[in-house]
Design a protein that fits this description.
Blueprint (H helix, E strand, L loop, with lengths): L9 H6 L15 H36 L5 H18 L3 H15 L8 H22 L3 H23 L6 H29 L7 H12 L1 H18 L9 H25 L11 H7 L1 H30 L2
Length: 321
């Protein structure tokens, strides 16, 4: 008699509703493949949970400025995000409070860390983590690991600085956005510095390579400035009804524009034949591009957030004064 696991037919998996996914292929391989396939399935589920948390962190940023109640069914969804956020931030909260107190002491000001610092941290970690994963998928494992570590540190410091702006008004809202933009610029500058040193070509100087690597990311600053100017315009003409929502709206516009930028970058790179495999079409190269993956993840997160607001909170966003 053969392996009882291998003897299980795909029909059985169809009956329990798994279809042609990981588990329907589970019976076709030996035990070592079983472990590998199950690990991939677990990793995929974990990634989708992180993606959901990204969408909900956008939601929570706006919810803090709305300060309105949500329907019980939607509150259940938010409970998941609060659990995810609490598990991620619980070991970091004391450190964040301590650093905020040190900043207050240095500036001789009374500063309390606002709750939105955690949502900014989650958003930045997921975004910079996605960029690190893009390098991991292309085989640059050491670069991806360093990027992830650097991203976590920069995200933590930036979110604390954003969290000390806890007053309502135009200036605090703008400062939160500017703080996030500055944090992303610092990350790109440090990342370009390290990449220029680690991957410098023999015929190029460090300065030349630094400029080349930074050139990939500097346009994101222009994207951020455009998002900020557009948000200010919407506020001045009355489309954004209160200054409390100015920062949240700016971040949402920035995130959407950033996703479009990375998609455009992927399309531009896919048009260069030296980046394609033999007989690979431009469309196939575009789909497997790391920058395209970043854009897709960001757009999926924002689409989920948009659907969430369309059901309930969006009404308060556009109707409530």
């Amino acid at each position: 008699m053969g392996d009882p696991v291998v003897a299980v037919t795909n029909d059985r998996f169809w009956r329990v509703g798994f279809g042609k996914g990981y588990l329907s292929r589970f019976a076709e391989y030996d035990a070592s493949h079983h472990i590998l396939i199950m690990w991939k399935a677990i990793w995929t589920i974990a990634g989708k949970m992180g993606l959901l948390a990204g969408a909900l962190s956008i939601t929570l940023l706006v919810q803090h400025s709305l300060n309105v109640g949500l329907a019980p069914a939607l509150q259940l969804v938010l409970d998941y995000y609060e659990w995810f956020r609490s598990a991620l931030l619980s070991p970091l909260d004391p450190i964040a409070e301590l650093l905020a107190a040190k900043i207050a002491q240095f500036l001789n000001l009374h500063i309390e860390l606002s709750e939105h610092w955690g949502d900014v941290f989650v958003l930045m970690v997921l975004y910079l983590g996605a960029r690190a994963k893009a390098y991991w998928d292309t085989g640059a494992r050491s670069h991806a690991t360093i990027r992830l570590g650097l991203g976590v540190v920069i995200s933590f410091i930036t979110s604390i600085l954003a969290g000390i702006w806890n007053d309502v008004g135009v200036l605090p809202s703008l400062m939160i956005v500017l703080t996030v933009i500055f944090g992303l610029f610092v990350f790109d500058a440090l990342d370009a510095s390290w990449a220029a040193l680690a991957y410098r070509r023999s015929d190029q100087t460090w300065v030349d390579e630094f400029r080349r690597y930074l050139g990939f990311s500097l346009p994101t600053i222009a994207v951020a400035a455009t998002a900020l100017i557009l948000s200010m315009f919407l506020y001045l003409v009355g489309i954004i009804p209160s200054s409390a929502r100015l920062g949240s709206t700016s971040l949402l516009i920035f995130a959407f524009a950033l996703a479009l930028y990375w998609a455009w970058r992927g399309w531009a790179l896919s048009g260069q034949t030296e980046y394609r495999e033999e007989s690979e079409t431009r469309w196939k190269r575009f789909r497997r591009s790391s920058t395209t993956r970043i854009a897709v993840l960001m757009l999926m997160a924002m689409a989920g957030s948009a659907c969430f607001f369309a059901m309930n909170a969006g009404h308060a966003l556009f109707v409530a004064g």
